[in-house]
Each structure stands twice: as C-alpha cells, then as structure tokens.
Amino acid sequence: MSTSAALLMLADSRLPTGGHAHSGGMEEAVARGAVGGAGDLERWLRGRLHAVGVLDAAFAVAAHARSEHPADWAAVDAEWSARTPSPALRRAGRAQGRGLLRAARACWPAPLLEQLARDLPGGPPWPIALGGAGRAAGCDPHDVALTAATAALSGPAWATTRLLGTDPFAVAAVLAGLAPAVEEVAAAALAHADPARSLADLPTLSAPLLDLGAERHATWEVRLFAS
Predict the structure, then answer these.
(1) Nearest CA to 54 among 165, 151, 160?
(2) pLDDT, tens digit, 9 for 90 and up, residues 41-59
C-alpha cells in the first residue's frame, strides 16, 4: 500500500479534470442553511463520506479490479446508475468522469482507457474513471479507494472557502480529523477488489437530501458551481 507519484497526481486538485467546478452538494447545503460555517462542516462531511464516499470508493475498486480483464464497462456503469437516482448527480458524475478520463489518457496512455472511452461515450462516472485511471497509472486498489474516499470530502470542504469565506485552516483541521474515518471507508472498499465478486454486492447506500438538493440546485439560474 505504498503511496506512488501517480496516486499523488490523481489526488491533486490541480490535475485538469474540471473537479473545481463542482461543490459536491455544498452550494445547495449552504443555501438551505445545513452548513453555515466550520461548526457544521464536520457533521455534514461525515454524513457524505458514509454515503457518497462509501459508494465511490467501492465502485473505484470494482472498476480497478475489472479493468485487468476484458472489461464490461457497461455493466459497471449500469450498477452505478441504478444507485444514483438523481439525474443531476448522474450528469455531474459523468462530467467529472469525462474530465478525469481525458487527463488519464494524456498522462498514462493504455488500451483499457481507450476501451473505457469507446464503451461509455457519454462519459464514465467519476469513480469508474478513477478505477480505470488508477489501473493504468499503476496504483493498487487501496490507492484508488483512498483517493475516492478523500475526494468525497475535499471538494465540498474547500468549496466553503468560496461560499462562506471559511478559514482555510479550519477546513484543513476538519479534514484532518476525518482522516481515520476516510481510512476505514477505503479499507472496507477493498472487499470489492475481487473481479469474480458480483457487482450486485456493491453498496446500495442512499442520501436522499443530496439527491433532492442536486435537483434543486440544477434549476438555479445563478450559481457558483455546476453541482
């Protein structure tokens, strides 16, 4: 479980994937008063981790495992779509997946990424793109799980500095405090590293407030973030 240079690149917010344009539901949460500052942030992020983070980490690991073989990307995509009931979240996930796939194809050219682009021309969901990118980059399953679980928190957390003017040091302290929970989620996701395991066994967690919030956010005429 060594940390590689490729892992650091995948986890770097400066990798040109377009992720900076998405708040992961934070903009809507701020607007409805669910997050008003650093005091609310830890609670909201912990809830997101144990819904979105668990799902993303598991799908990233499952995609990583299956990319070693002739991959049935459509089957993995169908399972992700079934667990993402919000059309707005599906669009956001694919937009971010397209950005990540484009960056990965430039950094780590590999046949599996070309197949992923061909099989899912509308764009792979972000966690599936991460799993494929991680495999092409030489990362192990724990690498992609940890990246997925961390990303579930980091984007929304740092969005509060723009939305609320939150003290960046306070944001960093909240994320540091959640590190053990992130590690637990990443470790649990490794159960899906077996390509023989059924995709039906992937988590089926839901976060109705995030789904409803994403649909509301998509109707706004003026907003800072795409999602």
Answers:
(1) 151
(2) 999 999 999 999 999 999 9
pTM above 0.90, yes or no: yes
pLDDT tens digit sequence for 76-92:
999 999 999 999 999 99
Please give the radius of gyration of the chain, using alpha carbons only, rounded to the nearest integer: 16
Structure tokens belonging to residue 65: 């495992």
Taking the C-alpha atoms of residue 189 and residue 149, their distance in angstroms, rounded to an integer, is 9
DSSP for 83-130 reads: T---HHHHHHHHHHHHHHHHHHHHHS--HHHHHHHHH-TT---HHHHH
Single-letter code of the amino acid located at 86: S
Residue with tokens 């050219």: 109
Domain architecture of the chain: domains with CATH:
9-217 (1.10.4190.10)
Structure-block tokens of residue 105: 């194809």
